[in-house]
Amino acid sequence: MVDQRTGTPRDRTALVVTETAHGAPELEAALAAESFSTRRADPAAVFGVDGAWAERGWGPPDLVLASAALGVNRVALIARRLTTAERGPTVVVFPEDDFEALQSCVRAGFDYVVPPFLPALLRCRLTSCWERGQLTMAVQEMAAEASLRQYERDLSVAHEIQAGFLPEELPVRRGWELATRFLPARQVAGDFYDAFELVNGRRVGFVVADVCDKGVGAALFMALIRTLLRHTAEHTAAWNLLDADEDTVLDTAARTSAVPSPVLSVGAGPLLQAVLGTNRYMARNHLRQGYFATMFFGVLDPASGSVVYINGGHNPPVLLRADGSHQLLAPTGPAVGMMPNSVYSLGHTTLEPGDRLFVYTDGVVEARDSRGSMFGLPRVLDALGTPATASAEDLLVSVESGMHHHVGGAEQFDDITMLALVRTPPEATAVA
Amino acid sequence: MAFDVTTHAEDGVLTVRLTGELDSRAAHRFNEVIGAVPGGTVNRLVLHLAELVYLSSAGLRCLVFAQQKLGRGTEIVLVGTRPEVAETITMTGFDRSVTMQDPVDS
């Protein structure tokens, strides 16, 4: 036998496993003649107590010669016990007296040697057994690698397709900045963001959403939910409010500013229809699969700074006022797709010059350091406490660096998505 | 903190005690427990959550899945939910589908 890596002969070890007290003298003599360093063990020593084998300082042997008299089950157990993650020994059965037992081991796929055990004959047989073992292993490795490559190809295709479900560019409005981050934990994510024009460009819709769970399942639902939301919002007339379900109650309790009812705001119709329609569709068609999405969907009037929104069970976005105070935009309804007949209220607020809105997914606040401690909302608020002149991009960079600082070298576990909307202060607008 | 789930079924009441963190890594273990329940045999699911310290969105999905699997007729009771876990349940509106109890009421 030859070392696979170096191609040079090395010290070969053989293990003879038998219950017979005197062992298999002819076989052991032939192995010795072929300069195998040979050990003998009874089966209990091999699959007795875990680790007993290693405690004796015995590495895994190159070759195992198991007596067929042990029976096929015990031979299989021995083979499994002596197989490490890196390699397994070549296992060959030999008959003591019972050729029937040998036959059942051979039927189970084990290689065999039969007496007389003459050194040259034995060497020839063992070499061919070893080569066959190597070939089988190589074929198995190739098959595993091929299926892994196929899997990786599929995932990278899914990754590219998912990227196509995010907006290619963000709408731009004078006096406003919009910036986003999308950091999936894996190749594909359940998070998404979106931003698009509504009502002939008079409004800008923006969404941050988190489909529960992650990976491929969440990614499929991300594609569905993003499409339903955007398609419905884009194809609902501005004032179309009243064909909502009868059991849908609209109230304005979530209002955070004393302006005319948000229900009367242009853009409220598309917003409500998109969220209600998506919830209805999910509840009707996908309830059993148990997927739902938390989301914040805002509709901005760039002229006035007015924002009507629905927060469907999502982490409350942070509204930072130019004077340094902040407020949280709490949920106005449950997660979308979680229950049929969910009721959603419209929230309303106004961004004045210098005000900034930060919308994020739970991957931000739940980012953990190596000890498991979460980044948390207070640290997010700290990171957002940058000077009021900071751009939307600056805000995201600040949160990102705060998060990286907190997490240290720990692996990112959850998808992370962030969106910052900033109404630029008057002086900045004048400069621009 | 490692996740653990123990169950006890009696007279149509399935009692489940969750310990540790219920997230995407632990989700399958809870789902297996719920998946093993024969249809129509449980009319009340009591979840003891006093030792559940974290519930991610994937974990919450387990509870939603349990509700779907057991059917609308099954009452779900959450007992002794910690504030940080209750926050996730309330924020997403799932509290509207379940009954939340203090430990003393159970």
Automatic annotation (TrEMBL), chain A:
It comes from Actinokineospora auranticolor. It comes from the Bacteria. Residues 173-423 form the PPM-type phosphatase domain. InterPro entries: Bact_Sigma-Reg, CheY-like_superfamily, PPM-type-like_dom_sf, PPM-type_phosphatase-like_dom. GO terms for molecular function: phosphatase activity. SUPFAM superfamilies: CheY-like, PP2C-like. This is Sigma-B regulation protein RsbU (Phosphoserine phosphatase). Keywords: Hydrolase.
Automatic annotation (TrEMBL), chain B:
Gene3D superfamilies: STAS domain. SUPFAM superfamilies: SpoIIaa-like. CDD domains: STAS_anti-anti-sigma_factors. InterPro entries: Anti-sigma_ant, STAS_dom, STAS_dom_sf. Signal peptide: none annotated. Residues 3-106 form the STAS domain. Pfam families: STAS. One of its GO terms (molecular function) is anti-sigma factor antagonist activity. Belongs to the anti-sigma-factor antagonist family. This is Anti-sigma factor antagonist. It comes from Actinokineospora auranticolor.
